[in-house]
Design goal:
This protein folds into four domains: 165 residues, MoaB/Mog-like domain (Molybdenum Cofactor Biosythetic Enzyme, Chain A, 3-Layer(aba) Sandwich), CATH 3.40.980.10; 44 residues, no CATH class; 85 residues, Molybdopterin biosynthesis moea protein, domain 3 (Molybdopterin biosynthesis moeA protein, domain 3, Beta Complex), CATH 2.170.190.11; 75 residues, Beta Barrel (Beta-clip), CATH 2.40.340. It is built from seven helices and 28 strands. A six-stranded mixed β-sheet has the order 8-5-7-6-10-9, with no helix packed on it. Helix 1 runs parallel beside helix 6. The two termini are 40 Å apart. The protein binds adenosine monophosphate and magnesium ion (MG). Adenosine monophosphate binds next to helix 3.
Length: 412
Amino acid sequence: MKVDLLTVEEATQAVLERACALPPIRLPLSMARECLLAEDVSADGDSPPFDKALMDGFALRFADLRNGVGTLRIVEELYAGSLPSRSLMGGDASLIMTGAPIPEGADTVVMIERTRRDGDRVLVEDPSVRPGGNILRRGREMRAGDVIVRRGETLTPTRLGMLASAGRPSPLVVPAPRVAIVPTGDELVESNQVPGPGQIRNSNAVVLEALVAGAGAIPLLSPIARDDPEILREALGEGLASDVLLITGGVSAGQRDLVPATLMGLGVERVFHKVRLKPGKPLFFGVGPRRGEKPGTLVFGLPGNPVSGVVGFLLFVRPALDLLAGRAGRPLGLPLYPLTRAFVHAGEKPTYHPARRVEWTGRGPGTVGLEPLASAGSADLLTASRADGFALFPAGDRAYAPGDVVGFLDLG
Ligand code: AMP
Ligand code: MG
């Protein structure tokens, strides 16, 4: 009996149903970059905590100037981090540096460029000065108790800075998913080795490592696992400690394609194996046993052909990583662009074909078009490396003309 394969849409749905935000943990700020905050964080004090100078200059009483001009007595020098010991009386001024607290009695700072010092006196000449000038009042930025970064917000560099200034060095966040990557295959050697007869270098691992990091997750790369049941069992068993396990190779129907059976022997529940698409049909997806508080590992067995692995990652793994990290995820539909040249598609599977984004001046919306690249198929990483992504040609034979619109699966 011929079983209908899942469509890409059905397979995506099956993956996304099983991917939910990881349980929040406390992380140091240096490890929380781009994570989602899982709690509201409030200011623990006013900021600034005191009235402070915004300029290097002289703190003084506005009433002592006439049209911005006056000669005053310098009573103290104040630096950022120092505390005023003197209140200003009539005719007094304190030299003050940016960030230093304003002394009592002062209501204005005149910038140093508008003053001339002469011993313990200072001549001030600034017709543009206004009362309160160059002072940031206490609590002007935020008040104690104000919520400064909200639950659900992404920790950008400036928000990390806000948490630091509020004294929250380890906020509660949804952590970046940890992704184990296990390359498999008897024919593989590492990239610093010279392949012997019948051998090739392991390129998939580094491609996946970069894709994982680019998706904001943490790649954990394993050494090459041989096509041997015992070795695979150990390597894949270790991978099941991570939030996601990516395996490349060993998922097709060959004698040495031991990955699906090994995974099931380790308690991984198979959700699907094979999807109706090209390249990358023999993709395996399953869920490992629960890990205590944490949900079971999402396990993706990607076909070994380099381009198949990339397409499988973009279609199924990247959206899952978004959800695990608590992000909303990208819209599922692909953006549409016109083709810049003719292309003939034949076959009963939807095909993701390497394409470059180029300028488009012909008919149709926008100024960006897609140029399909001449490719030798799923083993042709070189052509994929020159592409910006993959143009989607739906199932069925069709001759496309320039200007015909197709979907685009972006590598970026
Ligand atoms: P498999 O899915 O194991 O049948 O492998 C399919 C094809 O992908 C074979 O030609 C493999 O040599 C190749 N391949 C498998 N793993 C890798 C890898 N890590 N790097 C580059 N090519 C690979
Ligand atoms: Mg193999």
